[in-house]
Amino acid sequence: MSSPRVTAPELQLLGWRGWLPQRAGRADSGAIMTDERPAAAAVPAMLRRRLTPMGRAVCELLSELDIGAGEVPILHASRHGDGHRPLDMLDTLAAGEPLSPARFGLSVHNAVLGVYSIAAGNHTSMAAIAAAGEEFEALLAEARGYLAEGCDSVVLVLTDSPVPARYRIDAPEYPAAVALQLSLRDQPGSRTLTSEPRDSAEPAPITVAQLVDWLTDGAALATRAPPRRWRLAPAGPA
Amino acid sequence: MSDHPLSELERDVAHMIIDALELEDISADDIDPQAPLFGDGLGLDSIDALELGLALQKRYGIRLDSDAEENRDHFASLRKLSALVAERRTD
Fold first, then answer.
1. Do A46 and B45 count as a contact with CB atoms less than 8 A apart?
2. What is the DSSP letter of A167?
3. Least Cα separation, residue B67 to chain A (angstroms)
4. Domains assigned to chain B
5. First vs last C-alpha separation in chain A
6. Domain A11-191 adopts which CATH fold?
7. B contact residues 57-86, partner A, Cβ 8 Å cutoff
8. Which of A34, A43, A88, A132 has the smallest set of CB atoms within 10 Å of its CB?
9. Low-confidence winner among A218-222, B2-6, B70-74, B86-90 (lowest mean pLDDT)
């Protein structure tokens, strides 16, 4: 007797936005923002002043996705978080100097979503993830969990930042961010994520820029775990 | 622009506040020297109070006891803070 084959329902991409400051003047999609320091106009100035450009970008991307306040869980994964900020604090400590209370307060991995939550009055489920290079995979797994629990859609945010040179292991040269809204239901203009097993070669960690390219040009994206190649079906009739 | 022009020291302290607290789009002249720094006036919060304590130490060599009741008075306005700096600066 053969066991029934279990398949996960297909994921649908409802929308996305990206921030790639290194592509200023070269980005050809309205979904990609390249300002070095995003305006994040929806965040009150007294909150916004404590965010790095990456933090401002995340708030901007989330307000552009227009997910309302309270319905859509938000997951933020980042390998190195705000990069320089927390690591520079170690230098300050080593030099015996006092830490900046404001910077210390925002040095935790969930700080950006915390500021967004306060600014947007959005008290939905939010989580911050670091997964040693498997951030996108972790986001997909977490998203599956929320969708299986009955959430209509989930927003995945992937960011990364440069780190001081002495720490550099696969850290990007520029900060970057991307936000995707996934669901199990389709809607006009949504695109379906399909996947197939990939060969055994272990792919490099998925970067923000790579994810944006996948969203824009239809190339395949290889994940480490599960070992699969992902494609996005072209947008259906709107 | 405030109705009350700033003294040289008040301008100096105002710049310290703006730099230390990373205030966006605010110049020294936007700060009314007699308006409250916290709450209704400039709108600073409790983390800013800690940050200002650190800035006073770095910039003017003034160490405040974090529990002292009189800190509330020192931080009441730009003018009060400038008076503290004039009295206790060691730089």
1. yes
2. G
3. 16
4. 8-88 (1.10.1200.10)
5. 44
6. Peroxisomal Thiolase; Chain A, domain 1 (3.40.47)
7. 57
8. A132
9. B2-6
